[in-house]
């Protein structure tokens, strides 16, 4: 990673607790799926997936979830709000499109996101679309409640104009949500009962990634054909031998 200065273009609250941050930098180059580090004056470095695609440079989009005013994420947002220019380090991450997987012409690419893990998956999706990838691509995004949905405009545009499929799954049902409900893996397996010819990129919490992966492996998805940053910082516990 190298140190990169970025101008702050906008900081916008786009739902109850997610901020969309737009930066501008001519110093950055990255591959879809990678992330950057926001460097605080204290020296703390906090990773965030790049939610925009490389072809959108010099603009860079981040999605930051702020759970409470005492969180590190709140500190990040306040730092960015208070400055016209911030310091980042980038690029980082091995869960990206130059992993060699596209060279093997996969039959089906599965993009799976939980919460703000949507950022990384969106970058992958937009890049595959920009590159006119001619294989099958399926994006599944899971959130806990309908109030947790953000980037609705992007989702509607993807539905209308992308050759790929996009599905939003809300875990907890409510009267104001008419779309798909339940667990993320349930929606994926309802549409794709045989995953033996699929590759997958997964982004979300450790529990979401491994919990979903456990279910998808039962239907033929191979761990060797899966990519996630979680694999690097939270290795999967070994399953007990029966």
From TrEMBL:
Boundaries of every FAD-binding FR-type domain copy: 1-98
Biological processes, Gene Ontology terms: bioluminescence
Pfam families attached to this UniProt entry: FAD_binding_6, NAD_binding_1
Keywords, alphabetical: Luminescence, Oxidoreductase
InterPro entries (alphabetical): Cbr1-like_FAD-bd_dom, FAD-bd_FR_type, FNR_nucleotide-bd, MRET, OxRdtase_FAD/NAD-bd, Riboflavin_synthase-like_b-brl
A GO MF label: oxidoreductase activity
Keyword Oxidoreductase recorded: yes
Family: Belongs to the Fre/LuxG FAD/NAD(P) flavoprotein oxidoreductase family.
Name of the protein described by the UniProt record: NAD(P)H-flavin reductase
Source organism per UniProt: Marinomonas algarum
Lineage, uppermost ranks: Bacteria, Pseudomonadati, Pseudomonadota, Gammaproteobacteria, Oceanospirillales
């Amino acid at each position: 990673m190298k140190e990169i200065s970025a101008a702050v273009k906008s900081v916008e609250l786009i739902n109850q607790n997610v901020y969309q941050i737009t930066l501008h930098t001519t110093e950055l180059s990255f591959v879809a799926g990678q992330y950057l580090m926001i460097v605080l004056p204290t020296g703390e470095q906090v990773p965030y997936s790049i939610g925009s695609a490389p072809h959108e440079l010099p603009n860079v989009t981040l999605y930051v979830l702020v759970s409470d005013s005492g969180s590190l994420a709140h500190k990040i947002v306040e730092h960015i709000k208070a400055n016209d220019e911030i310091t980042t380090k980038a690029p980082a991450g091995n869960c990206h499109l130059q992993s060699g997987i596209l060279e093997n012409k996969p039959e089906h690419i599965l993009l799976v996101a939980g919460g703000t893990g949507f950022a990384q998956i969106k970058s992958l999706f937009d890049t595959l679309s920009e590159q006119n990838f001619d294989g099958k691509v399926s994006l599944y995004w899971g959130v806990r409640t309908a109030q947790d949905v953000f980037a609705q405009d992007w989702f509607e545009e993807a539905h209308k104009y992308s050759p790929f499929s996009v599905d939003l799954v809300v875990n907890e049902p409510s009267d104001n949500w008419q779309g798909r409900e339940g667990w993320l893996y349930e929606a994926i397996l309802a549409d794709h009962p045989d995953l033996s010819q699929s590759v997958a990129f997964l982004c979300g919490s450790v529990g979401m990634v491994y919990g979903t992966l456990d279910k998808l492996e039962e239907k033929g998805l191979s761990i060797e054909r899966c990519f996630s940053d979680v694999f690097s910082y939270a290795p999967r516990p070994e399953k007990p031998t029966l």
